[in-house]
Design brief:
273 residues, mainly alpha, MetI-like fold
Length: 273
């Protein structure tokens, strides 16, 4: 295989620097002793220690974990069932439903948030953690379904057929053959759904009620009032946690496919044709 031209490597490197330099600056200045974060005055961990005394951040973290866990469990179950129905079912309009499944992935978040807000107002559901959870389930189902659908596309159905031939009923074949084979895809989709839920701001800010702010909403409010160094610290913690979850999700899919290289999550998000 011929090596890539040097100019291609230079452009790729410049692109990576452009993408990640602001994040690197954020992480570095989270250890800056200066309170105004405009010049480097020395190394300190004071801003990370200060996070322990921020009750609003802890409340936001608790809300994010509750919403993320509930929405992930619900989206994983519903998304898996939808993926199974689309992959194994043969019915009129299946192609159209597959197209609708990918719609939440490309719809601007502000449009999704406003539409959900109008729905909650019309139905009469009070804004709070309940509406945030329902909203997160609504857009997380598509992520789980697409990942599981990609996993189903690469499955060998001969094992299921063999189980049915040997006398197992459909439920037993699903429990003993299909579900274990799908589990890596379900786990990866669930981790991705949790990340999307934990990091979401736009939709959450539109459907949240008083006293139900998640961590990203709290952090944005802090940034609007005053750019303080604790914002850099909590942002670095969120970045680290999200990166770990993305890595775990990527490893789950890679291990299931017997691969060592990363990048499977991105390929799994491509809608199947």
């Amino acid at each position: 295989m011929r090596p890539a031209p040097r100019w291609v490597l230079l452009i790729a490197g410049a692109g990576y620097v452009f993408l990640h330099l602001p994040v690197l600056v954020l992480v570095v200045f989270s250890f800056n002793a200066s309170r105004y974060s405009v010049s480097w005055t020395g190394f300190t961990l004071d801003w990370y220690r200060a996070l322990a005394g921020r009750a609003d951040l802890w409340r936001g973290l608790k809300a994010s974990l509750i919403v993320g866990t509930l929405s992930t469990v619900a989206a994983a179950g519903l998304g898996t069932l939808i993926a199974l129905g689309l992959a194994r079912g043969r019915f009129r309009g299946r192609r159209g439903i597959e197209g609708l499944l990918t719609l939440p992935l490309v719809t601007p978040e502000v449009v999704t948030g406003i539409s959900l807000l109008l729905l909650f107002v019309l139905v009469g559901i009070p804004l709070g953690l309940t509406t945030i959870t329902i909203a997160h389930i609504a857009f997380n189902i598509a992520f789980v379904a697409v990942v599981v659908r990609a996993r189903l596309a690469g499955m060998d159905r001969s094992l299921e057929e063999a189980a049915l031939t040997l006398g197992a009923d459909e439920l037993t074949a699903f429990r003993t053959v299909t579900l274990p084979a799908l589990w890596p895809g379900i786990a990866a989709g669930a981790l991705l759904a949790f990340i999307m839920s934990f990091d979401d701001y736009v939709i959450t800010s539109l459907v949240a009620g008083p006293g139900s702010s998640t961590l990203p909403v709290v952090v944005y409010g802090m940034a609007r009032r005053n750019v303080e160094p604790t914002i850099n610290a909590i942002s670095t913690v969120i970045l680290l946690g999200t990166s770990v979850l993305i890595y775990l999700a990527d490893r789950v899919v890679a291990r299931a496919e017997g691969l060592k290289q990363p990048g499977r999550i991105a390929s799994g998000l491509r809608p199947s044709r």
